[in-house]
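User: tokens in, sequence out, please.
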């Protein structure tokens, strides 16, 4: 059984918590001591926990909150016993278990809850998601990464409730990261997303994280049924998206979707916006809210599973450009697929030494997507269309083949595909109206990889400019940019901020 001390305790040089533990062997007594200094008395906490070998998550067994009984004691360390003595009273026959007493005076609860006192509590977080893998795109990827990195926090336990079936392989993969997976109970005449309204009754939840309307509307019911707090994540700005969709009443539908997103944010205990762009967007929309709603910015960090992609310094004979997306009518203009195709039809790129690969078409829809792209002037021998890649190892192989990833979106909440390219050390160009670009502009040299235009000719010049550098130099520059991005935005710090805000809502 291991021991963890709050920040109020400072272990002296002779002590070492790494190898400090308690052991119970039958009825044999076991004693261990550790010299500490007490810096302040408002947050004296001792946590006893166990952690099996090779496990990342630890299981809290109990916590001792040491609270001075009077203001006189609080003001003087001399009134506090240097070593707490806990003794077991003689057990009476009618007692079920042992009774404990302590030499400390009976603790009195503080009149005002101090955030520093409640900050050591273990936070039980439940995330609602479609799947553990990324078969459905960026939302699933973000939820998985969020779960993994939150679980690394020493004071957080993470459960992911899925709306779809989950194989043993996925459960094992999640378990290695300290994440517990629970599949929602199958209910008659209910869709998988509706089943998420009813997580297991015995699941202890301190905070439930919903995502958009799709995975956020369930959280308002779960907050009531499980007596927990609700964190609403927003990753799109529907009002902006509607402006770039070509079907009838797209703007009106975008406005309606935006109202639903904002209405959920108004009800939630905490709003988490993915990236700086959406932080600004929703902070503005929520100003009219009756309560002053808290909006936390969460900018995703480097995808660790892609950092081991080994890029070859050898030049390709043909400059390979990669673009991700579904290619359907609804997203065609939003994602800027026409911009990319027309850029390749321009004088600068209209030759066989440049090639565009589009990845993300639905199975069997490759020909249909190719036909849409070809209408914008790119030649057939410069275009390849492939289906969505489900396997991360296959994604790594694809990224090794490429020279550049482009994200010419006219508007984008964040843009995880561009972040994935950067994570793999691959040069990337991103449209200016995206959360990723807003984040990149705050990173040293990051603005050089943002294209401040929706015009195809400007994109063709930007692509040509990247090629004019030697591949080895391009890759070295991206290594430096990736390091700078990681220093500015890393998962651990982002999660620390989120955990702190959740704890304020849950415990304080």
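Assistant: Sequence out:
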């Amino acid at each position: 059984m291991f021991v963890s001390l709050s920040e109020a305790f400072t272990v002296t040089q002779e002590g070492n918590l790494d190898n400090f533990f308690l052991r119970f062997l039958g009825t044999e007594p076991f004693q261990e001591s550790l010299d500490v200094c007490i810096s302040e008395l408002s947050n004296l906490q001792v946590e006893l926990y166990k952690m099996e070998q090779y496990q990342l998550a630890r299981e809290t067994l109990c916590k001792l909150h040491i609270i001075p009984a009077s203001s006189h004691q609080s003001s003087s360390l001399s009134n506090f016993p240097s070593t707490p003595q806990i003794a077991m009273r003689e057990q009476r026959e009618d007692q079920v278990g042992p009774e404990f007493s302590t030499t400390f005076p009976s603790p009195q609860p503080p009149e005002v809850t101090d955030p520093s006192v409640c900050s050591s509590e273990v936070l039980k977080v439940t995330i609602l998601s479609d799947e553990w893998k990324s078969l459905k795109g960026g939302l699933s990827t973000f939820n998985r990464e969020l779960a993994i990195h939150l679980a690394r926090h020493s004071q957080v336990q993470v459960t992911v409730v899925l709306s779809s079936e989950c194989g043993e392989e996925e459960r094992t993969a999640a378990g290695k990261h300290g994440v517990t997976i629970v599949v929602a109970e199958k209910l008659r005449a209910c869709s998988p997303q509706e089943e998420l309204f009813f997580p297991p009754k015995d699941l202890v939840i301190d905070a439930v994280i919903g995502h958009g309307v799709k995975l956020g509307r369930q959280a308002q019911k779960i907050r009531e049924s499980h007596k927990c707090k609700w964190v609403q994540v927003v990753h799109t700005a529907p009002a902006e998206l509607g402006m770039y969709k070509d079907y009838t009443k797209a703007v009106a539908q975008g406005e309606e979707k935006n109202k639903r997103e904002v209405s959920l944010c108004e009800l939630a205990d905490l709003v988490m916006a993915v990236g700086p762009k959406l932080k600004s967007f929703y902070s503005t929309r929520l100003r009219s809210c009756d309560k002053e709603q808290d909006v936390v910015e969460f900018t995703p960090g480097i995808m660790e599973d892609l950092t081991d992609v080994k890029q070859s310094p050898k030049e390709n004979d043909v400059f390979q450009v990669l673009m991700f997306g579904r290619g359907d009518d609804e997203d065609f203009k939003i994602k800027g697929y026409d911009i990319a195709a027309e850029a390749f039809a321009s004088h600068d790129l209209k030759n066989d030494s440049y090639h565009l690969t589009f990845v993300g078409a639905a199975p069997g829809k490759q020909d249909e997507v190719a036909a849409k792209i070809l209408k914008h002037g790119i030649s057939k021998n410069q275009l390849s269309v492939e289906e969505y890649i489900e396997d991360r190892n296959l994604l790594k192989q694809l990224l090794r083949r490429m020279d550049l990833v482009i994200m010419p979106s006219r508007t984008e909440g964040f843009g995880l595909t561009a972040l994935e390219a950067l994570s793999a050390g691959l040069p990337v160009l991103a449209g200016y109206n995206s959360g990723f670009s807003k984040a990149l502009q705050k990173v040293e040299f990051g603005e050089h990889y943002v294209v401040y235009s929706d015009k195809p000719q400007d994109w063709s010049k930007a692509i040509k400019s990247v090629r004019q550098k030697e591949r080895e130099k391009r890759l070295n520059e991206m290594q430096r940019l990736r390091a700078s991005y990681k220093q500015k935005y890393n998962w651990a710090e982002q999660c620390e901020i989120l955990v702190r805000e959740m704890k304020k809502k849950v415990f304080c």
